Known about the structure:
The protein is mainly α.
Amino acid sequence: MEKKNSFMxxxxxxxxxxxxxxxxxxxxxxxxxxxxxDSIYVSxxxxxxxxxxxxxxxxxxxxxxxxxGIGVGISSAISIHLGAGNREKADRAATLGIALxxxxxxxxxxxxxxxxxxxxxxxxxxPKILNDASIYTEIxxxxxxxxxxxxxxxxxxxxxxxxxxxxxxxxxxxxxNIILDPILIFGLLGFPALGxxxxxxxxxxxxxxxxxxxxxxxMKSEDACRVELSAIRLHRxxxxxxxxxxxxxxxxxxxxxxxxxxxxxxxxxxGAAAMAGFAAYMKIDGFNILPVSxxxxxxxxxxxxxxxxxxxxxxxxxxxxxxxxGVLYTLCTGAALLAGQxxxxxxxxxxxxVVTYGKLAMRWFCPFYFLLSILHGLAGAVRxxxxxxxxxxxxxxxxxxxxxxxxxFLLPFFSGIEGVFILYPxxxxxxxxxxxxxxxxxxxxxxxx
Length: 449
C-alpha cells in the first residue's frame, strides 16, 4: 500500500489519471448494460411494459443517489487518510461506511415502498402500465440492499485507487444479468415467464453477486483497506467527516433526481410514443453520463490522496487532465451515437414514432455532453479536498432550480417537445460556467488548511 500511495503522488499525472479513469469508465459502461439489456428484453413485451419499467427509474435513482452520496464521503475519507499515510483511519473509514450503508438501506427501502404507489400514479392512470410499474418497483426496492452495498464497496475500491477490481466484479454481475434476463422474463429452461418482474429479479440478483464478491475481496485483502465485519461500529468523528462530505452530494443527487420527475412529466404530456422514445434514449444516455461520472470520481480519488499529502501542484495539474479526458471522450461518443442513432434505437423498438422521439432527444443531447463533463470533472476535483458544499450548490442551481424555472415559465413558449430537450444542454452549460468560476476564484484548495 505504501508503494501504491507513492505512485499516486509521483507517477505522471496524465498517465495515472488515465489508468484510473479507463477501468472506471469501462465499469460504468458495463453497469449501463444492466438497464440496456433489461430494456431490450422488456421491449419485446410491448411498449406498455417498456414505459412501466421507465417509470420506476426516478424513485430507484433517488435511492441509489443517496447511496452514492455516502459512498463519496467514504471514498474521500479513505483517499485523504491514505495520502497522509494513515492506514488505520483509512480502514476505519471503510468499515464505518458499511455501517452507514446498512442504516441507509433500512430507512430508504421502507420509505421507498411507502411512497412507490402514489409516486407512480403521478405519471399514469393506465391500469396495465401502473400494475407492471408497481411490481417492478416493489421488487427492485425490496432487493436493493445488494445494489446499495455494491455502491459502498465500489467507493471503497475507488478511494484505494483499485479501479480494475471494480471493473472485474461488475463484469461478473453483468454476465449473470445477461444470462438471467431471458430466462426469467420469458420463462426458459423450465422457469415460469415472469415478465417485468423477471427483469427486476435478474438485475437485483446480478448486483448481489457483485456485492458478495466485493465484500469477500475486502475481507481477505492485505494490500488495500481491510474490512472486518466484527469491527463494524459507529465512530462519531469519522462518521461526522463522511456525512459532512457525503450528505451534500446525496442531497444534491436526490433533489436532481426528483427534478427530473418534472422533466419526465413534461415529456409524458406529449403521449405514449414520446414517453417510450425518451425512455429508450435514456438507456443510451448512460454511455455518456456514467463514464463522465467515473472520470469525476477518479479525480476525487487522485485529488484526495495528493491533497492529503500536500501535493497541491499535482492537484492543479490533475484538473486540466481531468477536463481534457472528459471533453475528448464525450465529443467522440456523442459523434458515434449520432452516427448510429437509427440502428441503436431500433434495438429497443420497431415503432417508428417512438424512434423519431428518441432520435430527436439524441440530436439535442449528444453534441453537448462535453459541457456536462466539464461540470462533473471540476466538481469531482473540488470534492477531493473535502469541499462538497460548493459543487452541491452549483449542481442544485443548474440541474434543479434552473430546470424547474424553465419548465414553469419558459416551456410554454415552445410549440413542441424540443423545449424539454433543449433544457438539458442549456442547464449543463450554466452548471459548467458556474463551476469554472468557482474553481478559478474559490479557495477550495485551502479548504482544510
